[in-house]
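Moderator note: this is an archived Q&A kept for reference. The question asked for a predicted structure of one protein chain; the sequence and the answer are reproduced below.
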Amino acid sequence: MKKVLTCITSGLVIAGVVWSQTSPKVHQLKASTQTVHRGFFDASLKPVLTINSGDIVKLETATGNPRYFERLGVPKEKIPAELYDVYEGVEGEGRGDHTLDGPIYVDGAQPGDMLEIRIRSIDLRLPIAGQGFVPNRGLLPEDFPNAKDRVLWLDLKKKTTEYAPGVVVPLKPFWGVIGVAPPLSMGRVPSGPPNVFGGNMDNRDLVGGTTLYLPVFVPGGLLSIGDGHAAQGYGEVCLSAIETSLKGEIQVVLHKNKLLKQPRAETPTHFMTMGLNADLDEAAKIATREMLDWVVEMKGLSREDAYMLASAAMDLVVTQAVDGTKGIHALMPKAIFRK
């Protein structure tokens, strides 16, 4: 199959991929009162950063309203000063998990395109974290009608936290929220339930070295990232991971005229599709159908053979079961494909 090379004003299009003609530019995006939005996605938001396809963004995200930590007895001098700056003017004592950097405008992105978000690295940024549950939420609301919060201290070098005496949890940081703006017709939507635009997917497999693919619904895509998790189990059963501030790098590549129905991803070892629905059974069906479509597209198998291959080699994982819209992601090992 021949590749078509077409010159356009913003760079080069090679097989539908838009690249800048020069070396990728590196941008800095740090959480501040001017660079974050909290608790929602909205196509009418003005971007805080504009990039070209192929550019790299170094991110610092913030999680942890200082008043939350103060309420739990943490002395002010032990709370990082930068958190006071980011949460200046925020009312209440909520932890502020969904404090999102962005939106980022990708030049040339239009509805019907796809963004490839290469997660080059993610790391812990601050040693303080929080976790909790609230009434009538989580997987077992009937068992836990109360609320509870706690502070956790992270060992940034060892990448562990002592959860209780003799209980040490390894830390594998990732961003719980990575999403583009929803279609204009949806208006402003809360960031809690994930959707076709990504958002609060809480997918613990989207660590450094993985790639996420998201559809574009509005000009520029308007990408936002945050909700740092130091560690989370599949399912996130109490509603909360170990919530903390993170740092890392992403590279964003624009694919023209590449229509996606749902978010997809790749790890170094697996292809990943995602199903999002209020019903876990329906979410599993969506993830499976998406994987069948992808395998047929990539490898040329019939849909019937892809269905049987999925039963032999694909894993279905409960991403999270507590965000209203539940998540299942399907994992197909790359190693079984020899060509």
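Archived answer notes: Residues 280-299 form the longest helix (20 residues).
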